[in-house]
Each structure stands twice: as C-alpha cells, then as structure tokens.
Amino acid sequence: MTHANFIGGEWTKSSDTSRNINPSDTNDLVGEYCRAGIGQVDSAIASARAAFPKWSRSSPQLRADILDKVGTEIHARRAELADLLAREEGKILNEAMGEVTRAGYIFKYFAAEAVRAGGEYLHSIRPDVEVEVSREPVGVIGVLTPWNFPIAIPSWKIAPALAYGNCVVFKPADLVPGSSWGLAEILSRAGLPAGVFNLVMGQGTVVGDAIVNHDGIDAVTFTGSVKTGQSILQACARRGVKVQLELGGKNPLIVLNDADLETAVRVALDGAYFSTGQRCTASSRLIVESDIHDRFVAGLSKALGQQIVDDARKPGTTIGPVVNATQLNQDKEYIEIGKKEGATLAFGGEAIQRSTPGFYLAPTLFTDSRNEQRINQEEIFGPVASVIRVSGYEEALQTANATRFGLCAGIVTSSLKYARHFQRNADVGMVMVNLPTAGVDYHVPFGGRKESSFGPKEQGQSAREFFTQSKTTYIKAT
Ligand code: NAD
User: Fold this and answer.
1) Would you say residue 52 has pLDDT above 80?
2) DSSP code string of 109-177
3) Whose CA is closest to atom 34 on ligand 1?
4) Number of C-alpha atoms within 13 angstroms, CB side, residue 295?
5) Is 280 among the catalytic positions?
6) pTM of the complete model
7) Among 49, 140, 335, 470, which residue has the least CB neighbours within 10 Å?
8) Is pLDDT above 90 for 86?
9) Given the CA of residue 203, which atom of ligand 1 is nearest to it?
10) Which of 236, 308, 213 is nearest to 269 (CA)?
C-alpha cells in the first residue's frame, strides 16, 4: 500500500514516493509514502485557509472532544504504533512505547487547554474604562518536524495549534514518515472539518521550502537542525511571519566529586546513549570533577559493556541502530575527528554487525577531551559522548556554558548549594538535577537558548504564546 497525503479532507496520491526502510534490517521495507508536489502543497494551504474562518470560531468543546478522541485512540493502539516507530526509526520498543504514550497524553492535555483558553481582564488606568486582553488563533500554521521523535514532536505542535483554533499543514521528516502518517490517519477520522488538518509528505528542500515561503502560511513551527532552522528563520523574517525554532544541542552533564557514583553512571548512560544518542537533549559532554573522574569512567565503561546493541524490536536490546547510513557515516567521521584531536577512545568507536543488515554502532566514549575540540562543540547526534576533566565546580560551570548551544544541562551532586547555583547560572532553557538531560514533561515549557531555540517555548501553557495572538480591547460602557 502506498500511503497518501491528506489534503482538504481527502486522501490524495502522487506519483513520487519515498521508501521507508527499517534501520535495524535494511531488507525490511516499512512502506512507501507519497511525496507531495508543489501543486498539492498549494491545495493543502488553500484548504486550510478556507477552513480557518469557521474553525477559528468553533466551540472549544468541539475542539476538546476531537483532541481527546485522538489521544484515546493513540493510547488504545500504543503497542501497534510503538512497533511501527521502533521499526522505522530504530528506537527500542520500550522507548517507542514511551514516546507514543506521551503523544496520547499531549492530545489529552491540549483537549483540556482548548476549554480553559482565555484572556485577561484588567482595570484601565483611566476611570470607567475596562481593558480586555483576548487571545485569537494565528491562522494557518506550517508544522515541520524531524525524524528523531516522529510522533511526539508532531503531537506537541499539532495538538496546541488545533486546540487554539488554528488550521495545520503538516510536513513530517521524509526519512521517517510512518508514525506521522499513522497520527494523520487518526486525525483524519476524529471529526475535524475538511481542511483543518492537512498532511503533505516529502523532502524538506521541496515540500518544506514551499510551505515556509508560501503567502498562505501565517506561522511556522520547526524542529530540526541548526542549519535548516537558520534558513527558515530568514525566510520567515523576509515574509514577516511568526516562527518558532527548536534546534540542536551539545548538552553538558556535570558530575561533581560529591555525586552518588551509581546515580552519575545511570544518568550519563541514559542521557548520552539511550535512543542511540539521537535526542536533541542528549548529554554528549560529560564534565567530571577530578576526584571522581576515574571511578566514573570505569563505572560508565562497565555499563557500556553491558549494553546490547541490536534490532530495536528484539527483546533485550538496550540500544537500537543509528537511523540511516548518512547519520552512521557522520557519527564515524566524528569518531575519527575525536581521535585526530587527541582525545582517548575509551570505549566503542566501531560499527558492528548483527544478524540483520542494519546501521549498528557501538556506544562510544572519549576521555581526555577538551571542551574546545570539535567533538565537544558540534552536534554529533549519535551514541558518542566525551569526558572533560575539570578541577572544581567553577571550572565545570564555565565549561558547561562555553558552547553556542543552550538547550539543557544537567548536574549530578549531593550538594544543594551547587545544584541551586547551577540552576541559576546554567545558560540553558532546561536544567536537570540528578536526572538525565533527556526526559521532559509535557505540561511545562520546553526549549532552549542561544542557537538551540528561537521564539516562544513549546508545550504546557507556554504553547499558547506561539499558537495565539493577543488583542487588547478598551471598553467604556457609556
Ligand atoms: P532537518 O533540519 O534535516 O529536518 C527537519 C525538518 O525540516 C524535516 O521535516 C525536513 O524535511 C525539513 N527541511 C529540511 N530542509 C528544509 C528546507 N530547506 N526548508 C524547509 N524544511 C526543510 O533535521 P533532522 O535531521 O530531521 O533532525 C535532526 C535535528 O533535529 C538535530 O539537529 C536535532 O538536534 C534536532 N532536534 C531538535 C529538537 C529540539 O527540540 N531542540 C528536538 C528533536 C530534534
């Protein structure tokens, strides 16, 4: 079956298709997915524009019921959707199940937010005048998402967009369209009026570019790489439309001498290597104080030796494959760069064979690395982390902040003093204390600073900032 695009309430095919390949077994074709042409992008945007006036004034209860229904179906089908996610992206089943479950909760959370959404009432500084700050939907939102969270990231953009009365034109990653198509299929049966939600799959440089530069798009929400994000920022600035970007990271995890060693190892293993290190919130810089350094490296190396790198859907696998050949080559190139830069390869470093042809890479740890090296300044986006030894907390903090990124940062310590100081002084959008840098809740702001993010934060009630626009009204009754 070829999976079609969803435009104006109709499933619409195109002759161009992409082949979705299982990274755990490249002989396994997950499915074929249509790539929209420019004419189909135009139709999707026109349908969304036509649907907007009515949808933007629809009853919040209607929107809430639809979003809740979507969340309920995602949960009811979580095993099937998680299997698809693991098969197409290489995330192990447990992690895939977590991602799908979270997608369902996001829809349920924004179902309630649709009803709760309101504005503010204030007294004017002038006598007998009242002021209302109301919130209105923005219009037609272009939603562009990456391959690494193919159902959760689309959910945390699409659910608030619809909850606040916007229409959506959604383009998932060309590499991993299956879970996003599954989500679109659920949305197509949830009771949305035709044109409110549209799916146009295809390549970023074609379909994504057409969305970003289209006059019918009122705002763009994008998650992906820094390079693409910067070009989207420029395109949106030229057109003067709202834009929200969630981009890369090079997140630090500090381990202080007073840390509980077991916690430090567990937190580093999870943050740096789970989901094959393919998370924007992964902690790829492990900044470790001298006295605990050797014990931490020994503990983490031992834990890495216990990991099972294999087919993402095989019971017992703890680290799945890298997503595709291009990403695997990028990871291997950075491993060579790390060696050339003089870091010590303490664990892993090589691609590995399994019973099925897939993109398997041993979890890789560098030690004796310096923060200014490329392996510590550029996002690798694989199961590769490096240890930077520091002499004390002050140096650790300074090292943690010495990066162009600012998504999240973690610290493992038993000292409240250092934990609180780090919370205040880490130049990032999210701080984790004695917890992995990856792993966030859906009801609080998500996003970073510096080159990691641009525009209002996502998720929780902060989503309202991007998906609505304010109107201030002054009223004198007589
Ligand atoms: P990417 O930038 O290659 O692609 C992201 C999306 O943009 C895809 O749908 C792609 O098709 C589309 N696109 C590509 N070129 C385009 C163009 N010229 N115009 C319009 N759209 C275009 O990113 P990716 O490789 O899919 O994802 C990995 C990246 O995503 C990593 O850098 C990672 O850090 C980042 N990421 C960030 C967050 C976050 O919240 N900060 C979360 C997950 C992933």
Assistant:
1) yes
2) HHHHHHHH---EEEE-SSTTEEEEEEEEE-SEEEEE--SSSTTHHHHHHHHHHHHTT-EEEEE--SSS-
3) 248
4) 14
5) yes
6) 0.98
7) 470
8) yes
9) 11
10) 308
